[in-house]
């Protein structure tokens, strides 16, 4: 049930906030978030990254009866335009979507946000603001020289989405190096307290 809170964040957060950056707990921040947080949201409800190619996008369109070429986003990193959401979001539309497509929802928050608001999502660069193990292996280091050093210098947010987590014993991947570095840094800081 908690995943639905981010859909209705504008209803629960103070009116004094006009935007908020939502981050899943399985991310490592590898740089300043100021550029992301100051992204212009003129007319957009959300800013988020998409990881899906044409085949998965088409599958999601059919599964969710989206019927259009709107992006399917990863909701683990989202900048939300709270002012626009307060003014334009209709909770009944969300409830109706859930009721009508309940059996087809795989990742309910992403399914709902992508389906109802897809045309109102500003697409972020996933390599910079939502680098995942899947994205890295699909496009890097084999193409465009996006190796670990490139990620270190360019990716602000590394997101360990899915079941493959570097803190689990069965982890397989390359981006775990950033988690281990963050873990060591935290241990040093805690040791100084």
- Tell me the fraction of residues in β-strands, as a range: 15-25%
Largest sheet: 4 strands, mixed
Enumerate the strands of the largest sheet in spatial order, edge to edge or round the barrel. Answer: 1-4-3-5
Number of strands: 7
> Could you tell me how far the N terminus lies from the C terminus, measured between alpha carbons in angstroms?
37 Å
Mean pLDDT: 89
Order of helices and strands: HEEHEHEHHHEHEHHEH
How helical, in percent, are the residues?
40-55%
Sheet/helix structural class:
alpha/beta
The dominant shape is globular
Report the uncertain regions: none
Count up the helices: 10
Rg computed from alpha carbons, rounded to a whole number of angstroms: 18 Å
Can I get a quick summary?
With 193 residues, the protein is of the alpha/beta class. It has a 4-stranded mixed β-sheet with strand order 1-4-3-5. A 3-stranded mixed β-sheet has the order 2-7-6.
Task: Record the SSE blueprint.
Blueprint: H1 9-12, E1 19-23, E2 27-29, H2 34-37, E3 46-50, H3 54-63, E4 73-81, H4 82-88, H5 91-101, H6 108-117, E5 121-123, H7 126-129, E6 131-132, H8 133-139, H9 148-154, E7 157-159, H10 176-191
Parallel strand pairs: 3-5, 6-7
Antiparallel strand pairs: 1-4, 2-7, 3-4
Structure, described:
The chain is α/β, with parallel strands linked by helices and 193 residues long. It contains ten helices and seven strands. It has a four-stranded mixed β-sheet. A three-stranded mixed β-sheet has the order 2-7-6. The chain is globular, with a radius of gyration of 18 Å. It starts with 8 loop residues before the first helix and ends with a helix. 29% of the residues are buried. The model has no long low-confidence stretch (mean pLDDT 89).
């Amino acid at each position: 049930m908690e995943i639905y809170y981010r859909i209705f964040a504008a209803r629960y957060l103070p009116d004094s906030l006009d935007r908020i950056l939502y981050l899943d707990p399985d991310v490592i921040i590898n740089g300043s978030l100021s550029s992301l947080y100051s992204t212009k949201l003129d007319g957009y409800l959300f800013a988020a990254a998409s990881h899906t190619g044409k085949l998965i996008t088409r599958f999601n369109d059919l599964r969710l009866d989206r019927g259009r070429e709107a992006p399917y986003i990863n909701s683990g990193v989202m900048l939300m335009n709270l002012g626009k959401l307060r003014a334009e979001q209709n909770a009944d539309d969300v409830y109706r979507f859930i009721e009508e497509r309940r059996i087809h929802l795989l990742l309910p928050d992403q399914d709902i946000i992508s389906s109802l608001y897809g045309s109102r999502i500003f697409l972020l660069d996933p390599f910079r603001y939502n680098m995942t193990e899947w994205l890295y292996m699909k496009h890097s280091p084999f193409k465009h020289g996006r190796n670990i050093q490139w990620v270190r210098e360019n990716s602000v947010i590394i997101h360990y989405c899915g079941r493959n987590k570097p803190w689990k014993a069965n982890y397989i991947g390359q981006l775990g190096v950033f988690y281990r570095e963050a873990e060591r840094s935290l241990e040093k800081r805690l040791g100084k307290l």
